[in-house]
Design goal:
This protein has about 160 residues and is of the alpha+beta class. About 45% of the residues lie in helices and about 15% in strands. A hairpin with a 5-residue loop joins strand 3 and strand 4. The structure holds zinc ion (ZN).
């Protein structure tokens, strides 16, 4: 992830912790950094392994609490994919739009100037916009093809 994004998300977390009189523990920032280095979505186990590799092992309880805090701050978003929970770093000052297959978990960027325009044109009350995320859930074409093949097999 780009450095300016990391600086921005660290600031969001710092502000929140200071405003709410919570401790700025190094663990919380290590978790945040690791999350924003994942190229795509990850599971809690992936995150735990990554922190271990960085010689920054974090207890399951701390990991769980931190991820919940980051979900609350909308710095992380969770998806249910194939019966599992996957997470993804979510911060984009420009805004992003993704399509996600709920069966295999494949995430693809969606280019839609119309959506960007619609967000741009939306009047926000007493609010300074920083960015937006839009996720479109569904089934990708390879999963659809596989499901159709399985159905056809059953009918024969
Ligand atoms: Zn799929």
């Amino acid at each position: 992830m780009k450095d300016h994004v990391k600086v921005a998300v660290r600031k969001v977390l710092t502000n929140y912790l200071e405003q709410n009189k919570r401790r700025k523990t190094p663990e919380r920032f290590a978790v945040l950094d690791a999350i924003f280095d994942f190229p795509s979505y990850f599971s809690l186990q992936n995150l735990s392994d990554e922190l271990e590799e960085r010689h920054f092992p974090v207890s399951k309880a701390t990991l769980y609490n931190t991820i919940n805090l980051l979900l609350e701050l909308r710095l992380v978003i969770s998806h249910r994919v194939g019966g599992e929970t996957r997470y993804e770093a979510a911060y984009d000052s420009v805004g992003h739009c993704r399509q996600i297959c709920t069966i295999c978990g494949k995430v693809t960027a969606v280019k839609s100037p119309a959506i960007h325009q619609a967000v741009e044109n939306t009047r926000l009350r007493r609010f300074r916009k920083e960015g937006f995320s839009l996720y479109i859930y569904g089934v990708c074409s390879s999963c659809q093809a596989r499901i159709t093949r399985q159905k056809n097999k059953k009918q024969q």
